[in-house]
């Protein structure tokens, strides 16, 4: 039962991840490799949502996009280390932890 509740708790994250996966598959290739930062803004936002949740992940992604402008130096910009790490599938969906 707790596994089901954990899965439901992660549903908003996985919905956001699905939207970002679709964006990265359909829209992102149209722009090409133009991002000044590594990882790209969409990948950074996806990682932030996966590890920090929807609200904090979108906040991190929005502040990253605001930092991205023609005068930005760019470079490697990893997400802040989360308090609790979540496992993800190859497609990027967040998995519930097994109770021990």
Automatic annotation (TrEMBL):
It is found in: Cell membrane. The keyword Membrane applies. Signal peptide: none annotated. It is a peripheral membrane protein. One of its GO terms (cellular component) is plasma membrane. The keyword Membrane applies. Pfam families: YidD. Keywords: Cell membrane, Membrane. Its main location: membrane. Could be involved in insertion of integral membrane proteins into the membrane. HAMAP family: UPF0161_YidD. Belongs to the UPF0161 family. This is Putative membrane protein insertion efficiency factor. It comes from Agrococcus carbonis.
């Amino acid at each position: 039962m707790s596994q089901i509740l954990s899965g439901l708790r992660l549903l908003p994250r996985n919905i956001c991840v699905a939207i970002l996966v679709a964006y990265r598959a359909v829209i992102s290739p149209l722009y090409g490799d133009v991002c000044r930062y590594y990882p790209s803004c969409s990948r950074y936002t996806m990682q932030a949502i996966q590890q920090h949740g929807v609200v904090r992940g979108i906040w991190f992604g929005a502040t990253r996009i605001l930092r991205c402008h023609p005068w930005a130096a760019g470079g490697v910009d990893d997400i802040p280390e989360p308090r609790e790490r979540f496992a993800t599938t190859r497609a990027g969906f967040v998995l519930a932890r097994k109770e021990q």
